[in-house]
Design brief:
With 262 residues, the chain is of the alpha+beta class. The protein has helices spanning 2-53, 114-132, 219-227, and strands at residues 67-71, 74-80, 89-95, 105-111, 142-151, 154-163, 168-172, 175-179, 185-190, 195-199, 206-208, 236-240, 244-249, 254-259. It starts with a helix and ends with a strand.
Length: 262
């Protein structure tokens, strides 16, 4: 009897350890995706700030859009010039892995490479789709940010809500589009069914995922927390679903997921 009991306890411990290991793998995957998305958006923000601060007179142009991509360990921001459609001319900034603005390398008036044109065409495709497709909910005082990511065979586009008024912080109403090599839509994921818009600096410990198919924190949540670490005056942020609790630590950008006690 004692031997059977010990075997049963051992089996339960093994199941628990396996479950925790699986959650650690899931957490690592979400964290990496969130970090990648953050790097793309931060490259855009840093490059646009450099562009707007330039006083040489060389940059008196209007950008037709913005997108970034990873090149080795670097990130490159591309700003196509308005009016250069058939053979796009761009201003670009190349950043190191830390996105250091002081060491950014700028090029003005060069032509897009073939790889950049591929991403640009995907950006345009997604932008037109978002404007016309009723699946993307338009929310007052927000606008959509289109973030294409093309790496190897992966062609995906994040559609993120951003505030159009100052001193506000937005979470939710965000999507992920997956495309094949022919730029045909393969799938669409809606990360959140609603949107939270709150004043920056508000005391809050996180938010709730009410749907069964959103059991964990999302990569877009991670990205938002990293972009705006002081938007909520908290050391960590929690995302609570019916089945799990995810906790993002603001200080060291670590993520922990655990089952929720039923």
């Amino acid at each position: 009897m004692k031997k059977i009991l010990l075997l049963g306890i051992g089996a339960l411990c093994y199941i628990h350890a396996s479950a925790q290991e699986n959650l650690a793998i899931i957490a690592d995957s979400i964290r990496r995706e969130g970090l990648q998305l953050y790097q793309h958006i931060q490259a855009r923000k840093t490059g646009v700030a450099l562009f707007e601060a330039d006083t040489t007179g060389r940059l008196s142009l209007q950008a037709a859009g913005y997108f970034s991509y990873r090149s080795g360990s670097d990130y490159v921001l591309i700003m196509p010039h308005r009016g250069s459609v058939k053979n796009p001319v761009v201003t670009s900034y190349r950043f190191d892995a830390h996105l250091t603005p002081q060491t950014a390398k700028m090029e003005v008036g060069r032509n897009m490479t073939a790889a950049e044109t591929d991403i640009w065409e995907l950006w345009n495709l997604a932008t037109d789709l978002v404007k016309k497709d009723a699946r993307f909910k338009k929310v007052r005082d927000t606008q959509f940010m289109i973030v294409p990511v093309v790496e190897g065979d992966v062609r995906k586009v994040y559609v993120l809500s951003t505030p159009s008024r100052s001193n506000t912080f937005v979470l939710g109403n965000d999507y992920l589009l997956q495309f094949n090599g022919a730029r045909e839509e393969v799938s669409m994921t809606e990360f959140h069914t609603n949107l939270l818009m709150t004043p920056t600096g508000r005391k809050s410990s996180g938010h709730i995922h009410g749907r069964a198919n959103s059991p964990y924190i999302t990569a877009t949540d991670v990205c938002a927390f990293m972009l705006h670490p002081r938007a909520f005056d908290q050391a960590s942020m929690r995302v609570v679903s019916p089945t799990h609790i995810s906790e993002w630590n603001m200080a060291d950008n670590t993520l922990y997921i655990e089952p929720r006690m039923q």
